[in-house]
Amino acid sequence: MRVEEKLYTLRYKRDEEPHLRIRDQAQCAKCEQEYGTPQPCISVCPANVYTWDGHKLVLSYENCVECGACRIACPFHNIAWSYPRYGLGMSLRYG
Ligand code: SF4
Ligand code: SF4
């Protein structure tokens, strides 16, 4: 089963309060110079949460599947990461 198909088996309850935050966008610009594009967070995220608009990192936190990979992959510990508030975020559609 492809990742896209697996993602379809999830459902999301949007938390209005983002559970992911970039601590310092200037660091992301330096990261782009050092690692190129896509940066590590973009490479590892299975849900396309991160995109680089040429100047800053844009987050679509609503799509996050809460795997935690970006938090580990960011070489600068630049992602403030927490789970969505209770009852919000993603859940399995079946099971
Ligand atoms: Fe920013 Fe970290 Fe992503 Fe690099 S890996 S762009 S520093 S969040
Ligand atoms: Fe992407 Fe996983 Fe990070 Fe969510 S926790 S933004 S799905 S890498």
What does this structure look like?
- This protein is of the alpha+beta class and 95 residues long.
- The protein has a single domain (17-84), classed as Alpha-Beta Plaits, CATH 3.30.70.
- The model has no long low-confidence stretch (mean pLDDT 93).
- It is built from four helices and six strands, in the order H-E-E-H-H-E-E-H-E-E.
- The protein has helices spanning 3-7, 25-35, 40-44, 69-73, and strands at 10-13, 20-22, 50-52, 57-59, 79-81, 89-92.
- The strands form three sheets. The protein has a two-stranded antiparallel ribbon with strand order 1-6. A two-stranded antiparallel ribbon has the order 2-5.
- Strand 3 (50-52) and strand 4 form a beta hairpin.
- It binds iron/sulfur cluster (2 copies).
Net shape:
globular
What characterizes the major β-sheet?
Answer: 2 strands, antiparallel
User: So how many helices?
Assistant: 4
Count of structural domains: 1
Radius of gyration: 14 Å
Taken as a percent bin, the fraction of beta residues is: 15-25%
| Order of adjacent strands in the largest pleated sheet | 1-6
CATH architecture level-2 label: 2-Layer Sandwich
In the CATH scheme, what's the topology name? Alpha-Beta Plaits
* End-to-end C-alpha gap: 18 Å
Oligomer, anyone?
single chain
Domain 4Fe-4S ferredoxin-type: 55-84
InterPro entries: 4Fe4S_Fe-S-bd, 4Fe4S_Fe_S_CS, ETF-QO/FixX_C, Fd_FixX
Pfam families: Fer4_ETF_QO (PF05187)
Protein name: Ferredoxin-like protein
